[in-house]
Specification:
The complex is a heterodimer of chains A (241) and B (529). Chain A is built from 13 helices and one strand. Chain A has 241 residues and is mainly α. In chain B, helix 2 packs parallel to helix 5. Helix content of chain B is 30%, strand content 25%. Chain B is of the alpha+beta class and 529 residues long. The chains are: A mainly alpha (241), B alpha+beta (529). At the A-B interface, helix 2, helix 3, helix 7, helix 8 and helix 9 of A face helix 1, strand 1, helix 3 and helix 11 of B. Strand 1 of chain A pairs antiparallel with strand 1 of chain B, so a sheet runs across the interface.
């Protein structure tokens, strides 16, 4: 666990020492803020309800692009620059490397979301906000992020090109984000139910309105662990020859 | 290398096995969790946790209920919220019914064809104001749904924003799946108004209940198939045998509504005298008798009165305190949300006899300026009223008792009764028998909606075995934002957009300067950065 934590700290420090980090965070907060407060389907004042549901819907989309951008270089860049081989000489297992990087990326998302707490404070001052539903919405965003982070690291482990990793990560995530939902609406009966269960948006919508379902949490954990495992297998496979 | 993971994914073959094992376990776990639904509802008032009544209704479905919801897209928040809540609750019903509730949403504004289909299905479009680019426009909106079960269908032509949606969905499904309607017995034979004299109530209950007039109870008793018995305004005294039949009906667990006139007014003489129906002692034994008095209330309806003014006869509209307008209701599924009920020559309920095991809820009370007067009394409309005539307040006029009752004939020497103790049941009592009577011929009058709703709600409450009616009071909570000046709104909007960004940039600046300082220190110490 100590090794995982060391890698995590190193990643977070490296992230905040690069200009990319600030550009990404400013884009994420700029988009979330603009569509929550100024434009979009309805800004908070236009909707007139003391609720952060607009923000949750916007963030669900911004995170979809933000996370692949955060994770794209995590393994790919190390592979390109050769530091991955350097890491292999340390007393570290590939699983620990993946776990450390996953924790770092997820922590970064949590930090990015923490910067949106002024939204909550403002709305709570202006009306009787449902605190439980808001907490559930944030938990939903963190859980969805956990999936995207895993997929992002897996995509990054497959290539040494960051752009390829970014696009690959989006390609895989788009199934969970969009396509299963679309399939659920056109497929018949039981197959539609399966497609709906695989649709991440369906699980997120449930959490965004304040309900946390054990099946949703386990489904998200399955995808997260599955993608993390796939990333570990990719790294390990270098040593199998 | 750390030993803890030494064997993990060590070679291709082991990796394949290990990955399959882990993935298989996770999928099995997720599938199990999907079968045994466990969910935490973090919302205030557990908004998305279905009541046990709703669970029972959804769980008993054997065939799918198909819901086609016709909702216009991009509506103002109040309507949009109703759509989302409706969708969320349908999802909960689907989960509770193991997939037996299927639904789809259609936007009738998308095409003329869809709009036509919605109207043909019985959905009523409404015109609402919509703000578009700071300009108000009117939009034709649909907020309705069609429920289909086997060959039967129910249409919700308009779903009122803010209404009790869980109750709406559950009761609609129940209506579709229940083959036999409950039987509402209406006692006759003692001067009670016939169904044709209660047209508004009859129309309100049509289709929901099998209405059955019950006469000759003194010889045959109350039929066993009666779910709720309405005893409304008998004008003649009931025989002991008839009272005993009603008593035994309650003792069998029957639910009864009693709406009695304890005063017999005579407008020509300007006097009201007491009248007895034979049910007074029975209500006394059950624990909620009606007093032989009259309630007068400052908040009252107006009547036309002929008055002498300087040798002329003038017709004036004056407030008549014996026709109280009641707006003081308790928070109970029967009375919640009622606006106003108008009683005529109502008597008060005696709520002091609380030594029964039944739980009492007073449904309706007079206003803060009201009083009771004993009978007989003058009821002349021309009477001049003073403040001291309304020295009382909150006099109970309607109530409901729930629990077990002891027979009114339990201690009688001469009349032996089959049962002396009732199981859990319900009894509603009204200190006025006229408030649901439209009358007939020339004297027929239209009653306020509140009067009919009060009685229909009481019948629903008494007939309901599932506890579903308690959901009627559960409404979608509105959480309006404070009204702010446009300038304040703009400031807050930009503050929220810019503050997080400035915080990030500020943190970046501080970190950059700290790193610069560190590098400078290292340089000074002769360490290359």
């Amino acid at each position: 666990m100590h090794a995982v934590w060391t890698i995590c700290k190193r990643e977070i420090n490296a992230f905040f020492d690069s200009l990319t980090a600030y550009v990404l965070l400013v884009i994420f907060l700029g988009l979330s803020g603009t569509f929550t407060w100024l434009f979009g389907q309805g800004d908070i004042f236009f909707v007139g309800e003391a609720s952060l549901s607009t923000f949750f819907q916007v963030s669900f989309w911004t995170l979809f692009f933000f996370i692949p951008a955060v994770t794209m270089g995590m393994v790919a860049e190390e592979r390109r620059s050769g530091t991955l081989e350097l890491l292999a000489t340390k007393p570290l297992d590939d699983l620990q490397i993946v776990a450390g990087k996953w924790l770092a990326a997820w922590g970064l998302v949590a930090i990015a979301l923490a910067f949106t707490l002024p939204y909550y404070v403002t709305v709570a001052q202006l009306g009787p906000i449902d605190h439980g539903a808001t907490l559930s919405g944030y938990i939903g965003l963190l859980l969805v992020s956990a999936v995207y982070v895993s997929i992002g690291i897996f995509a990054s482990s497959l290539t040494s090109n960051q752009i390829v990793a970014f696009l690959l990560s989006l390609f895989i995530a788009v199934f969970l984000h969009l396509l299963f939902g679309q399939m659920a609406s056109i497929l018949p009966g039981r197959v539609a139910n399966i497609a709906e269960f695989l649709d991440l948006q369906h699980h997120f919508q449930t959490m965004a309105r304040g309900v946390i379902d054990a099946a949703s949490v386990l489904y998200i954990a399955t995808i997260t662990i599955g993608a993390g495992l796939a990333a570990t297998v990719t790294l390990k496979s270098r040593r199998w020859h | 290398m750390s030993n803890a993971f030494a064997g993990f994914l060590a070679n291709r073959r082991e990796a394949l096995l290990q990955v399959l094992l882990i993935a298989g376990s996770l999928i099995a776990l997720t599938y199990t969790a999907h079968q045994f639904v466990w969910r935490a509802d973090l919302t205030e008032n557990n908004r998305y946790t279905l009541a046990s009544a709703s669970h029972d209704i959804a769980g008993e479905l054997v065939d799918p209920v198909t819901v086609t919801a016709y909702f216009t897209a991009n509506l103002p928040s109040r309507f949009g919220r109703t759509k989302e809540e409706f969708r969320a609750l349908l999802q909960e019903f689907r989960a509770a019914s193991d997939g037996n509730v299927e639904f789809r949403f259609v936007n009738p504004n998308e095409s003329d064809e869809k709009a036509r289909a919605a109207r043909q299905a019985g959905i009523r479009p409404v015109t609402i104001d919509v703000r578009q680019r700071n300009k108000m426009t009117q939009k034709r909106a649909y907020l309705g749904a069609v429920f289909q079960y086997q060959e039967r269908r129910e249409v919700l032509s308009f779903i009122e924003p803010g209404s009790a949606l869980e109750y709406t969905i559950a009761s609609t499904i129940r209506k579709l799946t229940t083959k036999d309607n409950d039987v509402l017995g209406i006692l006759q034979g003692h001067g009670e108004p016939s169904l044709s004299e209660m047209t508004q109530l009859r129309d309100a209950l049509k289709g929901r209940y099998n209405l059955q007039t019950i006469s000759g109870v003194d010889s045959t008793g109350v039929p066993a198939n009666v779910d709720v018995l309405l005893v409304a305004r008998p004008q003649e005294r009931l025989s002991t045998q008839a009272v005993r039949a009603l008593d035994q009906y309650v003792m069998r667990g029957g639910r009864m509504i009693v709406a009695l006139n304890r005063a017999r007014p005579n407008m020509r003489l300007g006097r009201a005298r007491p009248q007895s129906t034979g049910l007074d002692s029975l209500l006394y034994d059950y624990g909620l008798p009606i007093r032989a008095d009259l309630v007068r209330d400052r908040n009252a309806s107006a009547v036309r009165v002929q008055q002498q003014r300087g040798g002329f006869n003038v017709v004036n509209q004056i407030r008549y305190p014996y026709i109280p307008q009641i707006a003081n209701f308790s928070s109970h599924p029967i009375s919640d949300g009622l606006d106003q009920v108008v009683f005529r020559f109502a008597s008060s309920l005696d709520t002091t006899r609380t030594d029964t095991t039944a739980e009492l809820t007073v449904l309706a009370r007079s206003s803060e300026q009201s009083a009771t007067v004993g009978l007989p009394t003058s009821i002349r409309p021309q009477q001049e009223w003073t403040v001291s005539d309304f020295s009382g307040a909150n006099i109970p006029i309607a109530g409901v008792l729930e629990g077990t009752f002891t027979s009114g004939f339990a201690d009688a020497d001469t009349l032996s009764v089959e049962r002396t103790q009732s199981p859990d049941t319900k009894l509603a009592v009204f200190g006025d028998g006229d408030f649901i009577v439209n009358g007939s011929g020339q004297r027929k009058r239209r009653l306020p909606e509140g009067n009919i709703n009060l009685m229909a709600n009481s019948i629903d409450y008494l007939a309901d075995d599932t506890g579903l009616i308690a959901l009627r009071t559960q409404r979608v909570t509105s959480r309006p934002l404070m009204q702010l000046a446009p300038t304040t709104q703009t400031v807050l909007k930009y503050l929220n957009v810019l503050l997080p960004i400035l915080l990030v940039i500020g943190y970046g600046g501080i970190r950059y300067r700290r790193n610069q300082a560190r590098r400078r220190r290292w340089k000074e110490d002769g360490i290359s950065a």
